[in-house]
Write a structure and sequence with these properties.
The protein is α+β, with helices and mostly antiparallel strands. It contains two helices and four strands, in the order ααββββ. The chain has one domain. A hairpin with a 2-residue loop joins strand 2 and strand 3. It is rod-shaped. 14% of the residues are buried.
Length: 139
């Protein structure tokens, strides 16, 4: 009789220890899943910003090419381009340089257009994105 009651007394705390262990393990898994989800969301946001800033840089190149080829203005050395819509938050700077060459009695002008698009902030901040596109046009 003495032996039976002693074993029961020892087994009473086992379920409490098991429950606490399971709570700790499940809490740790929950924290890990939340951390993973947050990192995935931030990565997705930066990916979308990267695509948008790339399109802003392309718009800057298109603007520079239009100035050179269609408008008659020629190569504008440095310009800040203001975009609208979903590209409005980005700062786009277009640089242009030209070099004239003479070959066999004909002259060719080569234009180098560089468009740099940046999101707000500084490079050390999360969510900062920058893209640079270079284009060379001969006319």
């Amino acid at each position: 009789m003495y032996m039976k009651s002693t074993i029961r007394g020892l087994q009473r705390g086992v379920s409490l220890i098991t429950a606490i262990f399971l709570l700790v393990v499940l809490s740790a898994l929950g924290v890990m899943m939340l951390t993973f989800f947050t990192a995935q969301q931030q990565s997705s946001t930066v990916d979308v910003l990267g695509a948008r800033v790339y399109q802003a840089a392309r718009a800057g190149v298109d603007w520079g090419a239009f100035q050179v080829l269609q408008s008659g203005v020629g190569c504008v050395p440095t310009s800040t381009v203001t975009l609208g819509g979903t590209l409005a938050p980005f700062n786009v700077v277009v640089n242009c340089s030209s070099t004239a060459y003479t070959e066999g009695g004909g002259s060719v002008t080569v234009y180098s257009i560089t468009s740099t698009a940046k999101s707000a902030g500084t490079p050390d901040q999360v969510g900062y994105v920058e893209r640079v596109i270079d284009v060379t046009i001969a006319q």
